[in-house]
User: Which sequence fits this backbone?
């Protein structure tokens, strides 16, 4: 009798799907999962997912990571139903969607001199369409994968180095088995709002330590900057308001069966105010929730 059916008990697996926009770092993410002990399969056609899970169960496997992308465009439409079916079987299924800003993607394709999958006419259709520009390919891919993005945890890799992405994905998948992981992320508005943010808070209305020459080279993790902001009544009040808002609505996010909640805190340069707020919020919620912390501009 197969191991997963012995004693009438259906074995369960941790299954992680990595998908997203071409050039966003899916191969890097899959390698990180391989290093973390996952059995990894790249570019699996979605129609083979259930069969692969069954085969891994036959072999006694427990951790599986699969990468899918627009190269399997014709069969991606059935992927949400497959993931729901696997969850109904009791498997721990997580879907990670990697993306990046278009200019970042263009720069990466230029550096590697690789062509976009949709630049080949066979990627989507057998008709002899005119060859698309890279920007057109990226926009078309975003539209084709929008349904998958909606049911996934989004990771914005814009400006993220490969080693940071590997570490970030390992932090996500090696987190404890709490129902919800809260990710606090500081960022600079001048470099754009993170694409992976579920909630965004703006702290640019507060006094900026950047204009103090002694504080300018420091960050929100340094004591002088913290003391500067603690002395600002508006900063104390805003921090309390944001904390209260998250506490008020956190149960709703948990009831929505989310695996992750990304809360982005932004200021002008992403160095002082947003870093301070992210640090303080992470410290507060870490006492009762599973929390991860990322400073986009400092990273």
Assistant:
């Amino acid at each position: 009798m197969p191991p997963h059916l012995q004693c009438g008990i259906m074995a369960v697996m941790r299954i992680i799907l990595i998908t997203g926009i071409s050039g966003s770092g899916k191969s890097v993410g899959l390698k990180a999962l391989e290093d973390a002990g996952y059995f990894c399969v790249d570019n699996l056609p979605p129609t083979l997912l259930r069969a692969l899970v069954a085969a891994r169960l036959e072999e006694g496997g427990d951790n599986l990571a699969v990468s899918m992308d627009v190269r399997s465009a014709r069969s991606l439409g059935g992927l949400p139903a497959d993931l729901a079916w696997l969850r109904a079987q009791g498997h721990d299924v997580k879907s990670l969607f990697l993306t990046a800003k278009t200019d970042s993607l263009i720069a990466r394709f230029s550096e590697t001199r690789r062509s976009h999958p949709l630049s080949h006419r066979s990627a989507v259709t057998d008709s002899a369409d005119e060859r698309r520009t890279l920007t057109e390919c990226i926009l078309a891919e975003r539209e084709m994968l929008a349904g998958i993005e909606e049911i996934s945890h989004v990771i914005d890799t814009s400006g993220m180095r490969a080693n940071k992405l590997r570490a970030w994905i390992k932090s996500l998948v090696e987190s404890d088995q709490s129902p919800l992981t809260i990710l606090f992320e500081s960022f600079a508005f001048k470099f754009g709002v993170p694409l992976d943010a579920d909630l965004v808070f703006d702290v640019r209305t507060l006094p900026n330590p950047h204009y103090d020459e002694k504080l300018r080279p420091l960050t929100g993790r340094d004591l002088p900057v913290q003391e500067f902001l603690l002395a600002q009544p508006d900063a104390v009040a805003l921090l309390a308001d944001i904390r209260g808002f998250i506490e008020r609505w956190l149960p709703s996010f948990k009831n929505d069966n989310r695996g992750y909640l990304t809360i982005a805190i932004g200021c002008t340069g992403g160095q002082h105010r947003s870093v301070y707020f992210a640090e303080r919020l992470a410290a507060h919620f870490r006492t009762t929730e599973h929390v991860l912390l990322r400073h986009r501009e400092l990273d």
Remarks:
- The chain has a mean pLDDT of 89.
